[in-house]
């Protein structure tokens, strides 16, 4: 065992993070430290800045082994290169479960967790009102790491999910996360497919015609012109195609909405849930007024939900009834 001034060691790295312009410098250092050295939990767990540490003297006396220090230095060096914490520690928590993460698959965000919670509450409320335990089927467009699909499967015991993604890495990672959370293989199906190539006569739409109670997606919705303004940990590491939604952020959103009528069950309870850009709710409402954007797709915008920052983030659509 080697005696190290742990407090000074951590502060020195925190200062390096700040000088390099690392986003969420203290949070990055905290999560990497906790993953590498569990004994730091009592000192760092509930801190948002160095000022929140209550006992610097005790932290200074905490012993780090040579191996622990080497691991921390490796982690911190990678973070200095703007590599996301989630890729460094190879996992992240979502809705109370720990999921495997790997580059360049899109990293799950807290906002998505909020959308999933809204969906689960909606499904359970419908099932209670209908007093039914009939099988519930859903489609996720763009599974990424599989956090949405896996969480819905775990929280809705009678659910069957189909997940699609253009990226084979996403399909493989989702498969591992479903297995990690103990979801039986007979309760899901994963397909490599690109929704930009879908249409009424496409293989996917024909195979799954009118089969789903719900379609959900956290699609690429960033405006192309905004991409360069994102943090380096995003633009240099995460899959651009999972982020860039085109000139108005609607390229994939419109594909999802345009194919939903063929895929949803013909029911007043069928719905589409999307996480979107802050401007999309108003944009879609204006497009509907101008050229029947949704009516042509036989959909209506049922409700707009705000995220924790009071940004219109989640859109719920339902079928337009004749």
From TrEMBL:
<dbReference type="GO" id="GO:0005739">
    <property type="term" value="C:mitochondrion"/>
</dbReference>
<keyword id="KW-0489">Methyltransferase</keyword>
<dbReference type="GO" id="GO:0003676">
    <property type="term" value="F:nucleic acid binding"/>
</dbReference>
<dbReference type="InterPro" id="IPR002052">
    <property type="entry name" value="DNA_methylase_N6_adenine_CS"/>
</dbReference>
<dbReference type="InterPro" id="IPR025714">
    <property type="entry name" value="Methyltranfer_dom"/>
</dbReference>
<feature type="domain" description="Methyltransferase">
    <location>
        <begin position="137"/>
        <end position="218"/>
    </location>
</feature>
<dbReference type="InterPro" id="IPR050320">
    <property type="entry name" value="N5-glutamine_MTase"/>
</dbReference>
<dbReference type="InterPro" id="IPR004556">
    <property type="entry name" value="HemK-like"/>
</dbReference>
<protein>
    <recommendedName>
        <fullName>Methyltransferase domain-containing protein</fullName>
    </recommendedName>
</protein>
<keyword id="KW-0949">S-adenosyl-L-methionine</keyword>
<keyword id="KW-0808">Transferase</keyword>
<dbReference type="InterPro" id="IPR029063">
    <property type="entry name" value="SAM-dependent_MTases_sf"/>
</dbReference>
<dbReference type="GO" id="GO:0032259">
    <property type="term" value="P:methylation"/>
</dbReference>
<dbReference type="Pfam" id="PF13847">
    <property type="entry name" value="Methyltransf_31"/>
</dbReference>
<dbReference type="GO" id="GO:0008276">
    <property type="term" value="F:protein methyltransferase activity"/>
</dbReference>
């Amino acid at each position: 065992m080697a005696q190290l001034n742990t407090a000074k060691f951590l502060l020195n790295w925190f200062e390096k993070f700040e000088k390099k312009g690392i986003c969420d410098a203290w949070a990055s250092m905290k999560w990497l430290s906790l993953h590498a050295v569990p004994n730091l939990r009592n000192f760092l767990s509930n801190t948002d800045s160095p000022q929140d540490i209550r006992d610097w003297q005790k932290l200074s006396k905490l012993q780090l082994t040579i191996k622990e220090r080497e691991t921390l230095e490796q982690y911190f060096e990678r973070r200095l290169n703007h590599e996301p914490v989630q890729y460094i520690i190879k996992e992240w928590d979502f809705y109370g479960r720990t999921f495997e993460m790997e580059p360049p698959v899109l990293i799950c965000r807290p906002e998505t967790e909020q959308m999933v919670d809204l969906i689960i509450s909606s499904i359970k409320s419908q099932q209670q009102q209908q007093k039914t335990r009939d099988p519930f089927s859903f489609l996720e467009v763009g599974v990424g790491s599989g956090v949405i699909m896996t969480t819905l499967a775990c929280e809705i015991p009678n659910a069957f999910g189909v997940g699609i993604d253009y990226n084979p890495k996403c399909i493989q990672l989702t498969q591992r996360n479903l297995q990690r959370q103990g979801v039986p293989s007979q309760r899901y199906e994963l397909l490599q497919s690109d929704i930009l190539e879908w249409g009424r006569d496409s293989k996917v739409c024909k195979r799954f015609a009118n089969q789903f109670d719900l379609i959900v997606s956290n699609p690429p919705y960033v405006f192309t012109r905004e991409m360069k303004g994102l943090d380096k940990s995003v633009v240099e590491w995460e899959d651009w195609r999972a982020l860039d939604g085109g000139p108005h952020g609607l390229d994939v959103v419109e594909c999802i909405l345009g194919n939903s009528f063929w895929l949803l069950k013909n029911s007043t309870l069928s719905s589409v849930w999307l996480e979107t850009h802050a401007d999309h709710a108003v944009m879609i409402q204006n497009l509907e007024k101008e050229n029947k954007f949704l009516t042509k797709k036989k959909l209506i915008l049922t409700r707009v939900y705000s995220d924790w920052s009071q940004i219109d983030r989640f859109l719920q659509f339902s079928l337009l009834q004749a």
